[in-house]
Design a protein that fits this description.
Largest sheet: 4 strands, antiparallel
Radius of gyration: 17 Å
Structural class: alpha+beta
Strand order of the largest sheet: 3-6-8-7
Shape: globular
Number of strands: 8
Distance between the termini: 32 Å
Strand content: 35-45%
Number of domains: 1
């Protein structure tokens, strides 16, 4: 896996912070070439129900806690009369109380990467627990 030049990480005595810059969501709809035998075919976004279920399943497997909220679909005004409503929603999530051992026992990042439209914003560690914050995009029609 190659990391972009703008990515950074720092570790303190009691914390670890990794910064991975986000780009437009459309760049996340294709899987990387050659990673785990995947192709570069576009992967469709999950519906909101499926994305929610996938995050809750991951939460259960990690014995952690999930906070998830969904924004309303964005609306774009094209002219005085026409308004276009986005076909996707943006969800904000926080997986907390993840045991640090989960990084060794499970392929946590591969599990998060299986779901198109998932972006990680931060990873923090306090004592022996991790917290992951990010967003996920999902289709509004399930």
């Amino acid at each position: 896996m190659q990391f972009p030049a703008s990515a950074s990480a720092r570790a303190g005595k009691r914390s670890f912070v990794a910064v991975w810059p986000q780009t437009d969501v459309l760049q996340y709809t294709s899987q990387p070439h050659g990673e785990l035998g995947r192709t570069s075919q576009p992967a469709p976004l999950l519906g909101q129900g499926q994305a929610t279920a996938a995050l809750y399943e991951l939460t259960q497997n990690l014995a952690s806690q999930l906070t998830l909220s969904w924004d309303a679909p964005e609306q774009y005004r094209l002219d005085d009369v026409t308004t276009m409503v986005s076909p996707w929603r943006r969800g904000q999530f926080e997986l907390s109380n993840i045991p640090a051992a989960a990084l060794l026992e499970t392929d946590l990042f591969a599990a998060l990467g299986r779901h198109p439209g998932t972006m990680l914003a931060s990873l923090t560690r306090k004592t022996n627990d991790l917290t992951i914050k990010g967003c996920i995009y999902a289709l509004t029609n399930d």
